[in-house]
Write a structure and sequence with these properties.
Radius of gyration: 34 Å
Strand order of the largest sheet: 5-4-8-6-7
Oligomer: single chain
Largest sheet: 5 strands, mixed
Number of strands: 26
Shape: globular
Helix content: 40-55%
Number of helices: 53
Structural class: alpha+beta
Distance between the termini: 59 Å
Length: 1488
């Protein structure tokens, strides 16, 4: 089905593919020559330009490398299968694993991904860091072997129904060397826009011969690069331009040359052509290597083909896209997966060599360093306009006034027979009105006017094959501006134009003129989803696509990549389609399938997707909380789908599910099970229950499939009674239904109770909760009874219990050993595993018994395994030990540790048979323990992490994420805030408290806003939203809502119409809301939902009492509700007029929740890369992360949050290893990607800006570095405010750079602010504060104010002395500096005395005022950003090499990838391979 898609996806693709054109390629050395070993950089010093040209895309790790990768984590064992089958493993396999940058856009995966980039602050510390250095020096020259491993799976792309659907979006031409200098290749997309990234890294990795290969092998088995068939050059001859040559690779399809031509500046206006070799037309879908006679130097002719209606429409669409290519309106309107990016405004295009910068940043004088007023420390204004600075490129060069479809379409029959396809109407900039005919032969002017139809050709008719050529002839302005526009288009960074995988919406937008746009108009009135009109068979069968992709083979790496890529692509298309459909449903544009029922109960089908509203239809959820339960059920269900998808059991299918909140309604969109609509639900459900447990059925096949998920999901197989009192066995909750579709697949749906219930919010009569819960006021009645524990909590709880199990067993074994006779003391102690006893045990076993304990744990592990394998060799005493430990921790098996939950416990209406009474009791106890664990371990754990600054949320979303990662639901937010207020270090948690309160307020407001909006009809929407925001944020005491003008409201209220409105009663009830009433509701909502008492009656009080910023609250509420407001300065404190008018509300967007398919292989590479880096093996880490980047690109396309994390880590590694320009290039991509995928003011983006500034400074781009830091500070002020620990780091950075450019007074303002914040959040005695004092002292020294300098340095010295002792080098350094300052001060005083004494003829000694050197500033910057370098001598290197070899052999002999510290061992042991000896010392630990 996908083939015809190819041509059509041109529109996104062209926008996208080879935009790295502006690089020149000076170094044309053959990429096959081995690189000389470089000193300490990751990658050989190729000029930036050649890097962009990317040598050979299909570099495949050879056997030895794949072998060594296997050692890197046990996970990667699968690679060996791939190796067996294919001889080599394709890692970045070109043509079928291409980033699919598709029609409906790729996919946005924001949630879990920032967690990925956990970066150790002190990457290079200690000996391990040195080891990394030494290894990077071992680059060995190596031979290169060319080999064609003609991979069979290359061609599968085309047969595969879904994969093909994005074949057209491929990144053409991901290949070697130079496609002429304006064409570096489109590997761009494969490895984040710079082919060099992974290729160079990979290529090097192979050459350096130690991607963890043993030094032993190094000698004899030298590394080899396996390169798939080399590329070759063909000549392209297109009409009207000089022939040019193009580098291609044999794996490419002809189609990809088409894409290149449609994007090249000089051929971009052609869409309808074929390529011919010696007069033979080439098949678009043939691979180049299959074409006879095509070889180095062949001449391919571009031959114009006759148009069809479809081709003509594609052509017009493509021209419109070229005209709009710099226009940001799609990003502001949130369509077609466009989003905003402002980085280029701040770098002014001068990052790296591609920039326009002529001079190096050494001449200081020209730099203007003063920041705007609002960025200075202490400033109270928070302007909004600066959030979206005006980009010069956005004032687009106007090429045409109007290009639109003519009203004379479609051509009448007689004209059709003359070849007329359609008519266009154009107004040129010179104001000439023309009508154009698109005919089979091309475009020409006809004689029609707006009112007269005359299809005859005008004179002259200017018949041209391309519309652009025609317009060039009739409008000189068009000719000039179109050329200029295309020049600009190809200069932009590709990451500014590639579609994101999921739509990102902007909560502010400037006022835009609404221009005529034929394509937009046409799209609005045709259901264009996924380009149906261009797909044979019209609408897409989503369910079939979603399930077929899951069935793709996954035996080896290439297959898995292909499968994950297809799954990801279909999911992103499905999410886009579902979102569009949900909006259409709420806007009333879709006919219900049960139109006669009342509005709340209606269901819809649109584009093969089923839509239902989040209301309690037919009292389904009566016992669970009615409409409230019906509102949360879809998100619970989505979490279930997400989880089952992640477990990925073959043969078990879930529905595509997307939950959309829009205009106050919740819509669930699901793919449709084949045949479900034809039959009643009762007949089709063969597993589970449709009435919450009254009638229950089971099915052996379902039990078998669900059994496979029970271990990873910790679900216990259990029996329930049905209405006939028969026992029925289930392996899920009763609501989970199994239906076999007409396609024979086993579907499960209604997964809303996949996880066990949260007893803290589910009071059950006669059940006593643990002490910890009662202390915190639980159990508490919640609005609905569907509260579940999060999966993260279940996992953390089980892990906690596993530790306990190991400790209990070890303790008993040791006692057995000690006494040699039974002693059950410890056992009784551990019999009831309440947390109290758990803790006492912990301390007992840790007290001085660590060494025994380790061996003890080891024995337990061994014992547990032998018992589990049940070979009868175990003596009864040891069995007893394990049995007791199992019983104590609540394991369901008494021979091994196995904790599972029964999700039906405490479900209303579910009954259990007598036989399982005891089991049910145990399960109840387990649930109570889990609820207590959340309160007594997870919440304190979160707060402790915040105190340690290991978790640094900056806004509501990052706080929610931190809570979710620890398994804490948002309904505990009030408890978390209360816990913070009772914490001893309360002041150091100020920032968390503030974020918590604003999150609490905005979430409560969102709940109210949801029901508020349901009563508003469309015509009153902007008035209602602005009124709500006025009541919420404005100081104006009595805002009045403007109802829609009377002439618009129909006088005769039609009875039938009344029914159409989804709201309850009167459509104008919203207008009577007052600020007092709203804030009263917010406070009661906070109390009822979050159990927190807010002390404020209006916005002003809230801002004052909790020190909140109204602009921050506005951002939070807008993001949560999808409101988009006008970009202008809002005065919140004006008491005479309201802040918002209806004109300020621009749009309301949907808030979408969906599944995020993962790239599992890539993620594992990424994790093992991180682990390597943390152990100090930077070189290997870098290679693994490059590899991960490659695989991520293969699965997600070019844009994704995880790719962003990957690029950030790569940049940091490049920087540490001395390759500054490479660091800059990778970090630039990370910033662009973060802006595009997460949002321009997302906390992640702020941090990316800071990293980029550091690398800019290292590359001597000082003014750019300052601009970036100022931008980061502005965003931080907007998102949170000034009082945040991260602000100290930011201000230290700014202060240091300003010190470097000799702006001392400015520098002091920032550094002193940083000092104040550090003292507050880290305590005045911390080393961070000592460093801050030192930085301030240095600036005072530069100003020759020695007294102040001495004062600060003394403070710092005292801290060092107390914390580190007299003899630590830091203390010594500080003391030396104090001496120096004292000398300088004395010298200055002498001079002054001399002047006083002798007046003007005094003999003055020259004083040394030191302007800081760039190197010293950079050194301090590195220190504050947590990067340490260690200088090495030659001797050190020799020793290190020997050490590395010794360690690697040792490591080999132990056969374990990453050793853990003994205490942490037990936690990790579940994941590690069974035979991991734990007595060894951690080998590769960086000891700073």
């Amino acid at each position: 089905m996908g083939n015809s898609l190819f041509a059509n996806c041109c529109r996104h693709v062209t926008d996208l593919i080879f935009q790295t054109r502006s690089f020149n390629s000076p170094d044309e050395r053959s990429p096959l020559l081995p690189k000389p070993p470089t000193s300490c950089t990751v990658c050989p010093e190729m000029p930036e330009a050649t890097q962009c040209a990317g040598p050979y895309p299909d570099i495949i790790p050879s056997e030895a490398v794949t072998g060594s990768l296997q050692k890197c984590t046990e996970y990667l064992q699968d690679l060996s299968e791939a190796k067996g089958e294919e001889g080599t493993v394709t890692v970045c396999d070109k043509s079928c694993l291409r980033p699919g940058v598709g029609a409906a856009g790729l996919l946005r995966q924001a949630e879990a991904s920032r967690a990925v980039a956990v970066l150790p602050a002190d990457l290079g510390e200690g000996p391990a860091g040195l080891v990394g250095h030494a290894q990077s020096l071992e680059a060995c020259q190596s031979c290169v072997k060319l080999e064609d491993s003609g991979l069979a799976h290359r061609s599968c792309c085309r047969e595969e129904h879904v994969a093909a659907a994005d074949g057209g979006d491929a990144a053409p031409g991901a290949h070697p060397a130079s496609r002429g200098h304006e064409h570096p290749s489109g590997v761009a997309l494969m490895n984040g826009s710079g082919p060099h990234e992974s290729l160079k890294g990979e290529k090097d990795a192979r050459q350096n011969g130690h991607e963890e290969a043993d030094p032993g092998e190094d000698g004899n088995d030298q590394e080899v690069i396996v390169i798939q068939d080399t590329g070759f050059t063909v000549k392209i001859c297109a009409p009207g331009i000089e022939p040019f040559s193009l580098q291609v690779s044999p794996q490419e399809m002809v189609q990809e040359i088409h894409q290149v031509l449609m994007d090249r500046e000089d051929t971009c206006h052609r869409t309808c052509f074929s390529l011919q070799l010696d007069g033979n037309v080439l098949d678009n879908f043939a691979e180049l290597k299959t074409i006879e006679g095509l070889q180095e130097g062949s001449l391919l002719k571009v031959v114009e083909e006759p148009y069809t209606v479809r081709e003509a429409r594609i052509h017009v669409r493509h021209i419109r896209d070229l005209l709009k290519s710099l226009d940001p309106s799609d990003a502001f309107n949130g369509v077609d997966c466009n989003s905003l990016s402002f980085l280029s405004v701040f770098t002014e295009g001068d990052l790296g060599d591609s920039g326009k910068r002529k001079k190096k940043g050494t001449e200081m004088e020209q730099i203007d360093c003063t920041p705007p007023e609002h960025i200075l420390p202490g400033s109270k204004e928070r302007p909004l306009c600066a959030l979206q600075p005006q980009n010069r490129d956005w004032k687009p060069l106007q090429c045409l006034k109007v290009l639109t479809m003519s009203g004379w379409n479609p051509p009448p029959g007689n004209r059709k027979m003359h070849g007329d396809l359609m008519y266009l109407y154009v107004i040129t900039v010179e104001d000439r009105h023309v009508s154009i005919t698109a005919s089979t032969r091309g475009f020409y002017l006809n004689q029609s006017t707006a009112y007269n139809f005359n299809p005859k050709p005008a004179n002259p008719s200017f018949l041209s094959h391309s519309l652009v050529e025609l317009l060039n002839q009739i409008s000189p302005t068009f000719k000039k501006n179109f050329a200029a526009l295309q020049k600009k288009r190809v200069q932009r960074h590709p990451f500014e134009r590639i579609a994101t995988p999921f739509q990102v919406y902007s909560w502010t937008a400037p006022q835009a003129e609404h221009a005529m746009d034929c394509v937009r108009a046409e799209d609005a009135y045709t259901s264009r989803l996924g380009y149906e009109e261009h797909i044979p068979g019209q609408t897409r069968d989503w369910n079939e696509e979603l399930q077929t992709t899951r069935e793709l083979p996954r035996k080896n790496l290439p297959e898995r990549l292909l499968r994950e890529r297809a799954i990801f692509k279909v999911h992103s298309d499905f999410t886009a389609a579902a979102t569009r459909g949900a909006m259409a449903v709420i806007d009333g544009n879709v006919m219900a399938i049960n139109p006669s029922e009342e509005t709340k109960m209606q269901m819809f089908i649109w584009n093969n997707i089923f839509f239902s509203l989040g209301f309690d239809v037919r009292d389904h959820y009566k016992d669970f909380g009615g409409d409230v339960a019906a509102y949360v059920a879809p998100t619970n269900d989505l979490n279930g789908v997400r989880t089952y998808n992640a477990v990925d059991v073959e043969g078990l299918y879930t529905l595509g599910t997307v939950v959309v909140d829009y205009r106050g309604y919740r819509v669930t969109a699901q793919s449709i099970i084949p045949g479900i609509l034809e039959r009643e639900q009762e007949q089709s459900v063969i597993y589970g229950s449709i009435d919450f447990g009254k009638t229950v059925v089971s099915h052996p096949k379902y039990l078998e499939l669900l059994e496979k998920t029970s271990r990873p999901l910790k679900i216990q197989k259990h029996k329930v009674l049905n209405d006939k009192n028969e026992e029925v066995e289930l392996c899920s909750s009763v609501e989970c239904k199994g239906i076999i579709g007409n396609d024979g697949r086993h579907y499960i749906l209604d997964l809303l109770r996949t996880f066990p219930p949260d007893l803290n919010f589910l009071p059950v009569e006669g059940e006593e909760m643990p002490e910890e819960c009662k202390k915190m006021g639980f159990p508490k009645q919640h609005r609905h009874k569907l509260c579940c524990l999060r999966q993260e909590l279940v996992d953390a709880f089980v892990e906690h219990r596993y530790l306990l199990f190991m400790k209990l067993a070890a303790l008993q074994l040791m006692q057995q050993k000690a006494n040699k006779q039974e002693s059950s003391g410890a056992l009784e102690n551990g019999a009831s595993p309440e947390n109290g006893t758990a803790d006492s045990e912990k301390s007992e076993s840790e007290d001085g018994k660590i060494d025994d304990n380790v061996t003890g744990l080891d024995q337990v592990k061994e014992l547990a395994e032998t018992i589990a394998s049940d070979d009868g060799t175990v003596d009864p005493k040891s069995r007893e030990v394990i049995r007791n430990a199992c019983k104590a921790v609540g394991s369901i098996s008494d021979t091994s540790f196995d904790i599972r939950f029964n999700p039906d416990i405490f479900s209303p209406g579910v009954r259990f048979p007598e036989s399982s009474k005891e089991e049910v009791q145990d399960q109840k106890q387990l649930l109570k323990d889990a609820a207590a664990f959340l309160l007594s371990c997870q919440i304190p754990g979160l707060v402790k992490d915040c105190l340690d600054h290991t978790v640094l949320p900056m806004d509501g979303a990052t706080l929610a994420e931190a809570m979710h990662q620890r398994g804490i639901n948002m309904r505990y937010l009030g408890k978390v805030i209360n816990f913070i207020t009772k914490t001893p270090g309360r002041a150091q948690l100020d920032h968390i408290f503030k974020i918590g309160i604003s999150e609490l307020i905005t979430r409560s407001a969102k709940h109210i806003f949801k029901t508020y909006l349901q009563g508003v009809e469309l015509s009153g929407l902007s008035a209602a939203i602005s009124h709500f925001l006025n009541c919420f944020l404005s100081s104006f005491p009595n805002p009045i809502a403007h109802l829609p003008a009377d002439e618009l409201v129909s006088k005769k209220k039609n009875k039938k119409r009344k029914n159409r409105n989804l709201g309850n009663a009167d459509n104008t009830a919203w207008a009577s809301m007052t600020p007092q009433e709203l804030w009263k509701n917010i406070c009661s909502e906070a109390k009822n939902y979050f159990d927190f008492s807010l002390e404020c009656e209006n916005a002003d009080q809230a801002a004052e009492v909790y020190n909140l910023q109204k602009i921050t609250l506005l951002r939070e509420i807008s993001l949560k509700t999808g409101v988009q407001i006008l970009l202008k300065e809002y005065n919140f404190d004006n008491r005479h007029k309201p802040t918002f008018t209806e004109e300020d509300i621009l749009n309301i967007f949907p808030v979408v929740k969906h599944v995020n398919p993962k790239a599992s292989d890539a993620f594992h590479f990424f994790q093992s890369g991180q682990a390597k880096v943390q152990q100090g093996f930077l070189k290997e880490g870098c290679e693994l992360i490059n590899e991960a980047l490659n695989l991520f690109n293969n699965v997600y396309g070019a844009m994704h949050v995880e790719i962003c994390a990957c690029l950030r880590l790569l940049a940091r590694l490049n920087y540490i290893m001395g390759d500054y320009s490479e660091a800059l290039s990778n970090q630039q991509k990370a910033v662009l990607m973060s802006e595009r995928v997460l949002g321009i003011e997302h906390p992640n983006t702020i941090q990316e800006y800071m990293h980029l500034a550091l690398y800019c400074f290292a590359n001597s781009q000082l003014s750019t570095a300052l601009n970036l830091l100022y931008r980061a500070r502005y965003l931080m002020l907007l998102v949170f405010g000034e009082d945040h620990p991260e602000m100290a780091l930011l201000d230290n950075n700014i202060g240091l750079v300003l010190h470097g450019v000799m702006e001392y007074d400015l520098s002091l303002r920032f550094l002193e602010n940083a000092l104040a914040i550090s003292s507050k959040y880290h305590g005045s005695k911390s080393l961070k504060v000592a460093l801050s004092h030192h930085l301030v002292a240095r600036v005072y020294e530069s100003k020759a104010e020695f007294r102040s300098a001495l004062q600060h340095e003394k403070e710092g010295y005292t801290i060092y002395k107390n914390q580190l002792g007299e003899h630590h080098e830091k203390t010594k350094e500080s003391s030396e500096y104090l001496k120096y300052l004292t000398q300088q001060a004395v010298a200055l005083q002498r001079t002054m005395n001399e002047i006083y004494k002798n007046g003007s003829n005094a003999n003055i000694m020259p004083l040394k005022f030191t302007a800081p050197s760039m190197a010293s500033v950079l050194e301090q910057l590195n220190i504050i950003n947590g990067i340490l370098f260690i200088p090495l001598s030659q001797k050190d290197l020799e020793n290190l090499k020997a050490e590395v070899q010794r360690r690697q052999q040792l490591q080999e002999s132990i056969k374990s990838g990453e050793q853990l510290e003994p205490e942490d061992k037990a936690v990790e042991e579940k994941e590690a391979e069974p035979s991991m000896p734990s007595a060894e010392i951690p080998l590769t630990q960086s000891s700073a």
